[in-house]
Design a protein that fits this description.
There is one protein chain. Among the domains are: 97 residues, Dna Ligase, domain 1 (2-Layer Sandwich), CATH 3.30.1490; 66 residues, Nucleotidyltransferase, domain 5 (2-Layer Sandwich), CATH 3.30.420.40. It has 442 residues and is an alpha+beta fold. Helix 2 packs across helix 4. Helix content is 35%, strand content 26%. Belongs to the FtsA/MreB family. InterPro entries: ATPase_NBD (IPR043129), Cell_div_FtsA (IPR020823), FtsA/MreB (IPR050696), SHS2_FtsA (IPR003494).
């Protein structure tokens, strides 16, 4: 506990070195696909010049991009080192070839790892009356540190609010005059084994890990508009093996979670229900899948194929109604898990309860209608904002996390803060209080 932010300091130093060289790669390691962007950092302003939401803002441009089918990744975590290494090497080399440069550092996403979210607070008395960098470090280290559990390092640590005496809602208190400095901190921990496996496979590809970002957080950065981040919204990133959840308020992430269910489970249900190969099931899901039944679905045959050489088996057909009957129960199960996670986070206390769906699973026809019914709130499908130079083919909802990684590379929210002061162990606070201290302070 005495060195809880050691990983933040290491990643911050590596990322600074990578950005100063001018090139960095971002890698979205998902269960269904692996995508890579090679970014060129333009010298807009020095990296690390600011603090907060625009900290270290440097203009980035995509100069290389590639994507391939994922291998060796299950439920958002590395399951096969050799297969995952081959897939990552393939996509990184393709992106480097397009960019015409070689990169040594990557910022990767983690969609699994069973993240846990905590709302913390700390207080510090200013001795000389003016807030200095050391005072910011002191108040961050004074935040009540919960028992994270064995082998659960910190993935994110976001200062979401500073208050100086009676003034709250400060983004950067340095240089201001006051006596009592308080801070609200949002902390996300993840399983150490999942992080080490990701770092190991990246190292086997002759690359150095310059940062790890929760896939749900990255998708939220890309898909939520400014008003949604300000008033309160949740981004649900429906990936292949896991569904990431991130809740935003006042332009900060205040909760993160992950559900080990995704589009791959829908594909597997189709494969087992119709007795066809998973590749064929995935194609049928993308082309004929849906969630809302109509009167003509019984009259829409779907050729199942097979390629076995047995005419009776290869000529089998199913109706779209049968397909919907397989797809809908699994999607409803995923949405029920999402609703339970949002209820646990206190989502119903936010001023605005907008839910934005991203990821490949969100593109199933009828998803937003069913999600609004199950979640009981407003739902829309989110498309990520464009990063300069990103190809159109890699800018849909299924690439929201990849786009968000590019935005994070330009504006890292947490690692620019000074974590040099040793952390002190304090009693834990409940997750439900994440919303409470937001409302009481702001």
């Amino acid at each position: 506990m005495s060195d809880i932010y050691a990983r933040q300091r290491q990643m911050r130093a590596v990322r600074r070195a990578a950005l100063q060289r001018g090139y960095v790669a971002i890698l979205d390691v998902g269960s269904s696909k692996i995508g890579c962007f090679v970014l060129r950092v333009d010298d807009a302003e020095p990296v690390g010049a600011g603090v907060g939401r625009m900290a270290g803002h440097g203009r980035v441009r995509v100069i290389g991009a590639a994507a391939t089918r994922s291998r060796g990744v299950r439920l958002g975590e590395i399951a096969g080192m050799t297969e995952a290494e081959r897939a990552i090497r393939t996509v990184v080399q393709s992106a480097q070839k397009m960019a015409g440069v070689r990169v040594d550092h990557v910022i990767a996403s983690l969609s699994g790892g069973a993240p846990r979210s905590y709302g913390l607070s700390g207080e510090h008395v200013i001795e000389d009356g003016t807030v200095e960098e050391g005072d910011v470090a002191a108040v961050l280290s004074a935040c009540e540190m919960p028992p994270l559990g064995e082998d659960r390092p910190v993935l994110h640590a976001h200062p979401v609010n500073f208050a100086l005496d009676h003034r709250s809602g400060l983004a950067d208190p340095r240089g201001q005059v006051g006596r009592r400095l308080t801070c609200d901190l949002h902390l996300v921990s993840a399983e150490g084994a999942a992080l080490r496996n990701l770092a190991s496979v990246v190292k086997r590809c002759d690359l150095e890990l310059a940062g790890v970002v929760s896939a749900g957080y990255a998708a939220g950065l890309a898909a939520l508009v400014e008003d949604e981040k300000e008033l309160g919204a949740a981004c649900v990133d429906m990936g292949g093996g896991a569904t990431g959840i991130s809740v935003f308020l006042r332009k900060h992430m205040i909760h993160a979670d992950s559900i080990p269910l995704g589009g791959r489970h829908v594909t597997r249900d189709i494969s087992q229900g119709l007795q066809i190969a998973e590749e064929r099931a995935e194609r049928i899901k993308c082309l004929q899948g849906g969630l809302q039944a109509t009167g003509k679905d019984d009259r829409e045959p779907i050729a199942l194929g097979g390629g076995t050489g047995d005419w009776d088996r290869d000529s089998r057909q199913a109706t779209r109604a049968e397909l919907i009957g397989i797809v809908r129960p699994r999607v409803e199960e995923i949405l029920e898990e999402v609703r339970a996670a949002l209820d646990a986070a206190g989502f119903d206390h936010l001023p605005n309860q907008q839910v934005v769906l991203t990821g490949g699973g969100s593109e199933i026809p009828g998803m937003t209608t069913l999600a609004a019914r199950v979640l009981g709130t407003q739902v829309r499908q989110g498309r990520p904002m464009r990063v300069r130079g990103a190809p159109e083919t890699l800018s849909g909802p299924s690439f929201a996390a990849l786009t968000g990684l590019g935005l994070f590379a330009a504006e890292p929210q947490d690692e620019w803060w000074d974590f040099e002061a040793a952390a002190t162990t304090f009693p834990a606070r409940s997750l439900r209080r994440a919303i409470q201290w937001m409302r009481s302070n702001w």
